[in-house]
Each structure stands twice: as structure tokens, then as C-alpha cells.
Amino acid sequence: MNIYDCFMYFDEDLLLDIRLNILDKYVKKFVITESTYLHSGKQKKLNFDIKNFRKFKEKINYIVVDTPPPGIEEINTDDKEDIKSKKILDNSLKRENNQRKKLIDGINFADDEDLILGSDLDEIPNLSNLNYKNKIILFEQNVFYYKLNLMQPNFKWIGTRACKKKQLLEFQWLRNIKGKAYPFWRVDTFFSTKKYTNIKIIKDGGWHFTNMKKPEDIDYKMRNFMHHLEYEESGLGVKDLKKIISERKIMYDHSVDKRKNKWKASTTLEKIDDDQLPEYLIENKSKYFEWFA
């Protein structure tokens, strides 16, 4: 059984370098999609350069997504604010989903029994003790902000998901699967494409390294990613981000109830010991010294 590691790319060369090096010994092919437009709809230049990753050249399937998804709604000047906001979010979601769905083009030569991983780039799975038996595997990951050793306490993130190629409907389907194994008697699981009983959750499932960027770059990303409207409405800017990072606070709290303001989080990040990090990072700490607190 071979492993195909599939993810979207924006401009995250630091994390791409880390990911490739950590997973190289496990993975047959890395499948990467990059879009020529942002989730906000603006045009985007291509940032991926194989010259920066020569070591992995033969393992990388790089796919450019240059066709917008169908169904993009036109935003009219006379649209009411709630209608306009809904259109903006729906369009962003379609663009993100379209880029993720295109990953399927990179696994054409995979065998039906090969294991397919679907992640965001910053969700790095721990494959050291992988034992594949269940239909679907979910990787429960620790969450890190700004620096490679600053972890959000008491919170886990279901990041990477995996299944065999013969079971893969599409990558967006894999991403949408609920992060729990349902009991066998739940009748609704027989008709759902999100709820499953045959799921394995790997507890020590890896590392979600989010916003490993300078404040200016985080601000640019947030103004152009899928939920860019939420970020704009939060009122945050570069000055605020600098303060949040200096205080080691998380900027966006996934654990907060949806009805509350996630952008005013107060959770303080914890500096963790090296033994909670991937072996590769421990052995190459000097290479990434500026990204350690």
C-alpha cells in the first residue's frame, strides 16, 4: 500500500518544507494544487517554485487551478447587506472547494488499495504508528500558533483525513466528514455522506501549525481566505495582530460557540517541550530557529 499526501497550497513555503521533510519517508507522492485566484475572487500569482524543493521533485504532482468553479454569483450594488454577505461567503466556499476537489487529478495512477491523505497544508499527520483497518481515518492534532512550539492548551483539531482510493468520493467529501465515530445503531448513518460508524480517530495524530507568518502576511491571508468577510468585520488589523502575537494569544478560537465572537479570544498559548514536536523539527531546530519561541 502506497500513501498519497494531498493538500492545497497558497504561499506557505516554510510549512511546505517542513511537511515534505517529515512525511518523505512515508509518502509515495505529494499532490499539490495552487489556484490563480484567491478565495475572495481576486487574481493571484502562482507562488510555488519547484526549484525550492528540488529534493522532492520526483515525488511532487503540482496542479494549477486556473478555472473558476461554476455557480459563482454576481454581487450587485443594490443587494441588501445580508444577501451580499451570503453571496460573498458562498462564492468563497465554492472557490476553496474547487481547489480542493482538483486534488483528485493528482492520484490518477494510484491503486485502489493505496491510502489517500487529505489535509490543509498546515495540518501535518503523524504517520509513525499508522495501522490502517477502518474505512476512514481521522487525525486528531495539537494546534500551534505563530511559532512551532507555541501550542493552544486543552484543544484538539481534527485535521488530516484518509481513506483508500477506492473509497474516496472526492476530497471535499473527505473534508466534510464529521469528526466522530457514530454508534452502529444510528440509522441516519446509512443515508449520510458525513456521518460514519467505521471511523478510526488517531489520538496522537500530528500537528496543526497555523499562521506561521509575520503579522503583515497573516493579515493578507485573512483578508483573502474563505472567511475573509468575518475577519474584515472583526476590525482586526496588522497592529492588533502584532499585539496578539506578542502576548501569545490565539487570534481565532475554534472552541467558542458560533454565536459568540471568535475573534476576541483570550486563550494564552503554552510553550511546549521539544519532545512534543516531530522528530525532524527536533533534529533540525537550528534550521528553523526564528520560528521557535
Protein architecture, described:
With 293 residues, the protein is of the alpha/beta class. It has two domains: 205 residues, Alpha-Beta Complex (Spore Coat Polysaccharide Biosynthesis Protein SpsA, Chain A); 63 residues, no CATH class. It is 23% helix and 22% strand. Strands 1, 2, 3, 4, 5, 6, 7, 8, 9 and 10 form a ten-stranded mixed β-sheet that branches. Helix 4 crosses helix 6. The radius of gyration is 19 Å and the shape is globular. The mean pLDDT is 89.
Give the arrangement of secondary structure elements:
Elements (H helix, E strand, L loop, with lengths): L2 E7 L3 H11 L5 E7 L24 E6 L15 H21 L13 E6 L2 E3 L10 E10 L4 E15 L6 H6 L22 E4 L3 E5 L4 H8 L5 H7 L3 H9 L23 E2 L7 H5 L10
Parallel strand pairs: 1-2, 1-4, 2-3, 6-8, 6-9
Antiparallel strand pairs: 4-7, 5-9, 6-7, 7-10
Helix pairs in contact: 4-6
Summed up, the domain count is: 2
Do you know the CATH topology of the largest domain? Spore Coat Polysaccharide Biosynthesis Protein SpsA, Chain A
How many angstroms does the end-to-end distance come to?
39 Å
Biggest sheet layout:
10 strands, mixed
How many helices? Answer: 7
Shape designation: globular
Radius of gyration: 19 Å
| Helix/strand order, N-terminal first | EHEEHEEEEHEEHHHEH
Second-tier CATH architecture of the largest domain? Alpha-Beta Complex
Q: Count the E strands.
A: 10
Structural class designation = alpha/beta
Helix content: 10-25%
Percentage of residues in DSSP E strands: 15-25%
At the first level of CATH, the class of the largest domain is Alpha Beta
Give unreliable regions as ranges. Answer: none
Query: What is the averaged pLDDT score?
Result: 89
